[in-house]
Amino acid sequence: MFTVQDMLQLPILKQAEAKTEIKSGMESPVEWVSIIELPVENFVRDNEVVLTAAIGCEDDENKLLDFTQEVMESGAAALIIATGRYLLDIPPQVVQFCEGHDFPLIEIPWEIRFADVSHAISTALHNQERSFVEHSDKVRKELLEIILNGEGTPQIAAYLEKSLSMPVIITDRRGNLKTKSKKAGTLEEKWNAHLLQHGDPLYFQMEEDEGASLPNKMHWITIDQTEVLQLTVQSAREIQGFILIEWPEYLPEDDIFREHTLILLEHAVTTSALCFLHDQAALETEMRLKDDFVWSLAKGKFESKDNALSRAKSLGYNLNIPYLCIAAQPDNFKQLYDKSTSSSLSYEKWQKQIGDFMEEEVLHAGRTMQLKTMSTFQKNELIIFVELQSEKGVETAYPFIELLEYRMNQKRPGLVISWGIAKTFGEDFFHTGYQEAHSALDIGRRQKGEGFVTTYANTRFDRALLALTENEELRNITDVIISPLQHYSKERKIDLVHTFIVYNRHKGNVSQTARELNLHRQSLLYRLRKIELLTGCSLDDSDEIFLIDLSIRLHTISADTSKKTHNPSI
After folding, report:
1. What pTM value is reported for the model?
2. What are phi and psi of 565, to 5 degrees?
3. What is the DSSP letter of 247?
4. What is the pLDDT of residues 435-444, one digit of tens each?
5. CA 86, 88, 92 angle in degrees (round to 5)?
6. What are 377's strand-pairing partners?
7. Distance, CA of 550 to CA of 570 (rounded, Å)
8. Count of alpha carbons within 13 Å of 129, Cβ hemisphere only?
């Protein structure tokens, strides 16, 4: 940046005298030079040095003061007045005004030609601009060479540390360390502690940036009383990661606006974005391979264990430890999508994005609990194989699910998920485990509703009912009992089936049933008599209550099974 102070060092201005003793004004940037006399009007631009002979003000101090004020208010960097011809001396009141407003006022002898001054300043500005271009080309080529040599983000961090003499770390979009420079050990420790306290940097990065606006996605954050410059690495409007630079105490934060520093940081961000895209492409390929592998395990598609072990080893998985299968299904995807601000994404792409997010959270939850995990998101279902550290699978599954739900709700508030936990576990029960977890998830959603955790071990009754649906005589009995209830409910808009379910759950307690259904006691008694009339069963007979309950359960299971037969994607 070329300043007023730099301008005064030019040979042409060695006879110039600064009439104001100020420091801040001398650091004002100079971008151009102009020669004007009265009137000022709108002929002065920001950061422009104004040359004048004060023609028309020589006998009127107030007019010169007004002229000076108008130049200053126009955003000029400085005012240079030539004395000796029209104006012999600059009046004290003009000098005092400039000093009071930190505005540089400079006097030059009449003999110095304005054209020479203007040429000298313009040449200096041009030379500086050329040096910036040359510096930019040098930095760009050196950073591009890093990419061409396949060295990636570690070398970018080293390059920044060498250029700035500051520790540097580079993280992914979640704040996890990708690489660091040699002297960034302490910064890494501070950052990890900061991450634990504040959470995902995608959410906290803007909170502490209340100062002056910084360019190009740059933010100041305070980490353990240390100022850190956070640069956001972004491509295609998607945040890829962050560059964090520990700013030394002795260096003013405004130094970031120095042209050479800005050029270096901007090129570093651009180069890092290219590296991140390369890494992302490789990661997406790896994720697809891992998804296919886990899905094949769940479906039991491997011909031999040796084949599965070989594939697992190439993907970094260990199949020689016991795993428990957990199946999960988001229940309110469509509602969340309708509320989402990412309306530019199609529902299918948004759904895949959330699926990738859920898999990522499985990985982080596993790392937190020091458990190995494998997962895939297929057909709106998250399939997880989590390492067992106890012979009781539920002792591992419940804490894992609790942590996973907590993490997901932190990032995606309102996401409702149902869970199914397998009973069988071990080294060679991936397909069986998935079948059990999927069955537990399915039965739990039908019997309990959305957002519950169901274990396969607790679905024995429902699985027994599934077997009973094949009995022709039971199907006929079910139809005789259920059909009149459904017909009445459809005509009168009164759900008698639900009324009975609540009544049976409360073991025939009329007061509790009425309270839950928000009904008057007499209204409930009317409904109960109608159920007895339509079904031909007495609610005072425990056997007949059991028959109605069994019919409702069999009908529900049969209906859901029929839906799945006609729509395999469910």
Report:
1. 0.52
2. -65, -40
3. P
4. 999 989 988 8
5. 120
6. 382
7. 25
8. 9
